[in-house]
Design goal:
Blueprint (H helix, E strand, L loop, with lengths): L2 H6 L2 H24 L5 H27 L1
Helix pairs in contact: 2-3
Length: 67
């Protein structure tokens, strides 16, 4: 997910997208602990997407405080 796509999402959509990504990370970690280690690269991608979402949320939070 690119930063531009993340910025186009509303606040509620950001929260739901973040929850969805965290759920996917949990499932992939669980699968890898069981022995189905397919998603190492996907875990990294999802973690970066979560970080992007958190960054955009923080930017919006800080911009609202300045007003």
């Amino acid at each position: 997910m690119t930063p531009d796509k993340v910025r186009d999402l509303s606040d509620d959509e950001l929260v739901s997208q973040q929850q969805e990504l965290l759920e996917k990370i949990f499932r992939l970690r669980f699968q890898s602990s069981v022995g189905q280690a397919e998603g190492t690269q996907k875990i990294r991608e999802f973690k970066k997407d979560v970080a992007r979402i958190k960054t955009i949320q923080r930017e919006r939070q800080l911009s609202q405080k300045k007003v």
